Amino acid sequence: MTEWGLERIERIFIDSRVRDSELAKRVCEIFDTTKIEWVLSEPLAELQGDLSVRDFEASKQMLFITEFKGAFFKRCPGARPGLTCCNYFVLNLGSQCNMNCSYCYLQSFINSPVMKLYANIDRALDELKQIGRDLHDLPLRVGTGETTDSLSLDPVTLFSRRLIEFFKDYPKWRLEFKTKSSQVDQFVNVDHVGNVIVSFSVNPNAVIEHEEHGTASLRARLDAAQKCRAKKFEVAFHIDPMIWHPEWRESYRELVRDICERFNPEDVNVISVGALRFQPQQRHMMRERFAAQSWVTGAELFTSRDGKLRYDETLRQEMLKFVVDEFRQDSHDWRVFLCMETPEVWLETMQGMPKSLGNLEQMFDHGVTRKVTAECR
Ligand code: SF4
């Protein structure tokens, strides 16, 4: 399977109000004019709401360049009572994704029939500036990969370049891109001050082939990570979501080996590990879209404390511990943590909670979270 490119975008709507934005101009340069339509309001508005399977599929091939009117900067949705979380904040510069993972949480979230990219990034940066007035010196982590992939459409938006430039003035903050693509060439030559983390969600090739349609191969993602590392960007990996399949041990052992062969622990900022989880309301859509060829749709799953469907706790612990132990066999210096897990699973898998695991203390300093949350209200 190859990574899906821009040729899959079939229709592009541009909101006439943003016609002078850098993004609109770039889109007009890159795409064939026959694909572009100028609009004065939300296109296909009659389809808004609960999308049918067909409309959801179609939304991945239709782009709407517009402005975002709400708050760009938000707390990570994982920050909830009952879950152990890591002081993460999100900046949403678009919604929907041009790739197509069977478990994608956007299936329970997207209610627009078009993929959106926001042209008013200047206002997003103003919001960050506002926050920076009081919190310039706090170790804030800001990610852009919540409602869309951070980099798969970045060759069009070039948002990465604007953000890296902006974060040069905030050396204590960390900017985190999160991707399943290999699209890094557009920013690797931009000067930075060492506070940009390019994080790659990775899975064994077998899982990529089965479940992560249109994403980059594992090899392409690791190649991209090495390019970033060569330019002194921090690199992180998310082995998330781990997906059970008959050969899961062999697959994940090989994945850990690939990472350990190409990188040293000091090259990698963190490695987060998480097991499959998703909202029950997206199961119907997942079954309709992927049932025959998916390891996810037929899995036996249980509702956990946060309402999401997950493997039972024993299997989760076994899978997560397997990966953690594989890294530890290589070196105890790998900074591995669990993403969106309960304290019980943390204790069983890691033999400790994050604040007692020396190298992760700052990430889990909830004092930072409280200060920023108060600032964002
Ligand atoms: S890459 Fe991420 S956002 Fe895109 S479809 Fe896959 S899970 Fe969803």
Task: Describe the model.
This protein is α/β, with parallel strands linked by helices. The protein has a single domain, classed as pyruvate-formate lyase- activating enzyme (Alpha-Beta Horseshoe), CATH 3.80.30. The chain is built from twelve helices and 18 strands. The chain has helices spanning 22-30, 53-59, 121-135, 154-157, 159-167, 205-211, 218-230, 248-262, 283-290, 313-330, 343-350, 366-376, and strands at 11-15, 36-39, 62-66, 73-75, 88-91, 94-95, 100-101, 115-118, 141-143, 174-179, 196-201, 212-213, 234-242, 268-275, 277-278, 302-303, 309-310, 336-338. The strands form four sheets. It has an eight-stranded mixed β-sheet. A five-stranded mixed β-sheet has the order 2-1-3-8-6, with helices on one face. Helix 10 (313-330) packs parallel to helix 11 (343-350). Iron/sulfur cluster binds at residues 97, 99-101, 104, 106, 149, 180, 215.
